[in-house]
Amino acid sequence: MPPRGLAILIGAGPSSGAGVARILAHPSHGNFAVALLARNPENLANTAKGIQASTPNPVIGFPSDTTPEKLSKAFADICSHGSFRDLTLRVAVYHVKHASKKPFLEETYQDFTDSLNTFVGGAMAFSQEVIKMLFAQQGHTSLAEGGFKKGTLIFTGTLGAMRTNANFAAYGGTRSAARSLAQALAKEYSPAGIQVVHTIVNGVVKNEESEATRSGKTISAEALGRNYLWLSEQEPSLWTHELDMRPAQEKF
Length: 252
Fold this sequence. Notes:
- The chain is α/β, with parallel strands linked by helices and 252 residues long.
- It has helices at residues 16-25, 41-52, 68-80, 109-138, 169-189, 211-214, 221-232, and strands at 6-10, 33-38, 59-63, 89-94, 151-157, 194-201, 205-206, 219-220, 242-245.
- The strands form two sheets. It has a seven-stranded parallel beta sheet, sandwiched between helices. It has a two-stranded parallel sheet with strand order 7-8.
- The chain is globular, with a radius of gyration of 18 Å.
- The N and C termini lie far apart (42 Å).
- The mean pLDDT is 96.
């Protein structure tokens, strides 16, 4: 069975990113061809190789950070890659990790704004590339004009987007800003048939099944992937904008 479309995921690390991508690529689940983006070429190649072992669908890595220049090149390379010829983008996931903890008076302007530029600026640049690709492939006809759903853009967020703690000024600022960006994009592009989702992933994500995932102490990466696939399959009559998720034993 050929792939039914294309999925793009940035932040393709060996844990949660790999598990989400594996579900999106597997013929019994998403059945998508998958483009993976990450900064480290060696780790990216290993992640792609591991996923390729579980699916006949193309899973190709494209080294990139979150700068506009690198993302623009990565998307151009994806569009011209022979493995993705004639495939329509259906789901894109901004899955970049970010952590910063220090007393506020030890924070520097440079470090603080670097966090904003890397995480929030990256989310903005990635979203622009995704939306441009969706319009280029499927046109601008709105739902009201008889158009159809074009695709789903998912931001992986954390509880830090909702509330933060002492010593987490940069982390909370970037996470909440990305959440607001997702909300603005949802309000602007939902009528055009583009679903934009912000998720709260509250807990440790593991790429392997274990007693901890079974009992709800930690999150299964593949369970996260199945939820993302479910989001991507929602129809315009009722779709999710924000989804709050955690394992059963996680306190909140």
